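User: I'm curious whether this sequence folds into something compact or stays loose and floppy. Could you predict its structure so I can see for myself?
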Amino acid sequence: MGDTGGVRPDPRQEPSPMPRLAVFALIVCALAVAAAVISFVEGSWLGIVWVLMAGISSNMAWFYIRKAKADRAQAAEAANGAGAARTA
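Assistant: Here's the prediction. I'll summarize afterward.
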């Protein structure tokens, strides 16, 4: 299931705007911030755990965004290099 038969996607196709894991990490970050605010408003020190979770999830989102950019740049470089090799 999901096998494309070794066919690579067209490099000219527009990439997705953001990787799915980065979107999930941003959602978790936003929910953790909201939970931290609610915990602190209610006077609970449990909000510290939520702040830490927000920090970790924001770092994960940043990592996945940067990783996707690097992967796209590497794929574009490989495609440009292969095209230059064919024309030479």
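Summary: The radius of gyration is 20 Å. The chain has two helices and no strands.
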